[in-house]
Amino acid sequence: MRADIRRINAKLEHMPHGDMGRVKNPQNLELTSSYLSRIDASNPLHIEARSMFKDRWLNPERHYSSIQAIYEVVYRGKSAMRHLQQYDDYRSKLRSEQPRNRLVEEILFHCWTRRACNIGDDGSASAIPCSVKGCNLCHVLQCDFSGDNARRGGNWGTGIYLTTSSEKADAYARNLNDRSGKRHLVLLSKVLVGTPKRVYVKNKSLTQPPSGTDSIKAMTKDIGGVVKYSERVVYRDDAVLPWLVIIYDR
């Protein structure tokens, strides 16, 4: 898995944030907030994201039907652009402090994706996040990490939980307005893990990573840990940059 992450990071390192959609003003959108831009199936980014989703679906007993669309988050608006700058600043800081660390940044799935709308379900060329209070997904897409939009309580306290496993991310994907629907989505983000603290036991009292580290890396049961599939936890908003949305049918 570590070699896989390095391969993906090497391919994606030079891809700019929020600019892969190519269409700068799809459908004459009012560009005052971030929006989703559908990525063509022939685009290398689409191919790589599709491969990540398929290869990281680790449980052979659970299945998904097919991927319907892949979108990229295109950043617009003061709040989103400010978050983008904060992310870049934090990444530069980590790279400066950890010049030998080749995995300062990882591409990870969110373990907490709840939506109260149907964004992306129709496969349209672009989509604007909704403003419904309970739609955590759309708030995160606009870089609003307040409250429980991205955070949840877990084995390592209240933080932003992520994983390398698409199947695990699917287990946490919720459609609040259509609980029986077959169409779901997962969110992929660029995540600044810096120097992670490897943990083998639970510690629900954590509110930040242990001193000298930047994130939590939960070890899996096959090597003495407590989780079946990989988990990462970060505790600061500027460690996460929403990037891709994958729409699929279960």
Summarize the structure.
With 250 residues, this protein is of the alpha+beta class. 22% of the residues lie in helices and 28% in strands.
What does this structure look like?
One of its GO terms (molecular function) is NAD+ poly-ADP-ribosyltransferase activity. Strands 1, 2, 3, 5, 6, 7, 9, 10, 11, 12 and 13 form an eleven-stranded mixed beta sheet that branches. A two-stranded parallel ribbon has the order 4-8. The chain has five helices and 13 strands. By secondary structure, the protein is an alpha+beta fold. It has one domain: Phosphoenolpyruvate Carboxykinase, domain 3 (Alpha-Beta Complex). The longest helix has 20 residues. About 5% of the residues have low confidence.
